[in-house]
Fold C-X-C motif chemokine.
Amino acid sequence: MQTCAAVRVVAICLMCLAGFSEGFRSHALRCKCIKKETRFIGRNNVKEIQVIPSSTHCTEVEVIATLKGGLQICLDPSAPWVRAAIRRSLRRAQRELKERDRRDAPSARNQQRQRCGNADASTRNQQRQRCGNADASRSSIP
């Protein structure tokens, strides 16, 4: 009799947990933006713009702006100023990527210097074959 009651209690607890987790799951599987702001917000007040594409859980494109104070506001993606802000943000991100790539990529001359650096007498012939330049054939007199 006690085991039957214990089984019932466990079953009820599991059903409650399943109901709670289902409630949380369904909350995450919907659009984040219910109300969208169409009024202009100055770019000095906006810290970040996040564009969330449409998906199976939300058929609309969502644009969320994080203000410098930390407040998040949903913006209307069809508003002209929001489109301009997204374009400006994308251009800035592309420019930053190009600058980072240019800064991080070593030049061809630096690559050759790393590959054909100063060699001691034992590797001088290997260096001449690998680099094929006059610098490799010079010998340094100690």
